[in-house]
Amino acid sequence: MIRCLPTNLTDIDVYHLIRKWITGGLSNVMHRVNRSGIDFFKRLYYNKEAKKVTVLTTDHRITHVVGVDFNSLYPSVMSSEPHKFIKYTGGKMCIYGSQTGKIMGDTDHQKQTILRIINSKKRFTQEGRLFIAEVKGHIQEDYLKDFINFPPILRNYEFTTDERTIGSYMYSHMKDNTIKTDQKQRKLTNLSSTMGEYMAFSSYYLWFLIDDCHFIIDDVKQIVLFNKHDQFNSFIKEYTKNRIEAKLDENKGQEQFFKIVMNSSYGSDGMNTEKYHKVKIMNRRQTERAIRSNSFMDEQKISDDSCIVQMNPEHCSCKTPLQVAFF
């Protein structure tokens, strides 16, 4: 492809792999009660011998509760701007292009091939290959204490909200606040391992886990290979400059315009079209026909002969390069 720009996925199995592991939605918060001037900071401590995690209350009282958000996260990710902190692919984060191959780890030889690609020293050069790998793994136990307060594996994980799984503190908190317990939930969760499951990671994320978080790969299932590009760089630099100028001029309208254009040009690639609903205005006869359909969801009358009808389509299509939004 020209300049390795991204194209839409044509492999349905790769689509389902990426769609399943795109993170998002509600997050699982470990400590939900933090009251300024009342509660104390808590730290998690991992006892390697007993293999238990203990919550320790420190002597430091909470005085402020701060919400942290990233500034221009999407533009930063897709800019491919060189930075000395980036040690992979020539000092910049490249963007996923088109799929160039796939290797299934069905045999020992194939598994070794996948591991060689993941661990290749070329990742520190411009020749580093971008991929999405489905692996099992864990943080090396000797280093768990360094990451126990913020486990570095962020993935949507399904778990049961029973006392054994979430602990007596959270279980009691949910009970006291009439939140349903003892049921399955799927939330974005901080993990120190893949919990015995195969989970998919982008090349940059997996390299970070291996090189900085002492992540050990226990097994590999498959790897999907992509070419890479940096063609969004000039676009992001220009629009970032325009946004800064608008902010300095106190032109909030223009500032929001440039922000939304940059965010949507990246974030829209990961939107889940499987959850799109069709909403139509129908007359009475069309509404009656729609209600009998298996895809009918809801209707609301807006006049004597018109209704707004919501339908759940039986089919969907992904018209964006989903791999661009995966990490």
From TrEMBL:
Catalytic activity: DNA(n) + a 2'-deoxyribonucleoside 5'-triphosphate = DNA(n+1) + diphosphate
Family of this protein: Belongs to the DNA polymerase type-B family.
GO molecular function: DNA binding; DNA-directed DNA polymerase activity; nucleotide binding
Domain named DNA-directed DNA polymerase family B mitochondria/virus: residues: 201-313
Entries under InterPro entries matching the protein: DNA-dir_DNA_pol_B, DNA-dir_DNA_pol_B_mt/vir, DNA/RNA_pol_sf
Keywords: DNA replication, DNA-binding, DNA-directed DNA polymerase, Nucleotidyltransferase, Transferase
KW Ribonucleoprotein (keyword) present: no
Record-given protein name: DNA-directed DNA polymerase
EC number(s) from the headed UniProt entry: 2.7.7.7
GO BP terms: DNA replication
Lineage: Eukaryota, Metamonada, Preaxostyla, Oxymonadida, Streblomastigidae
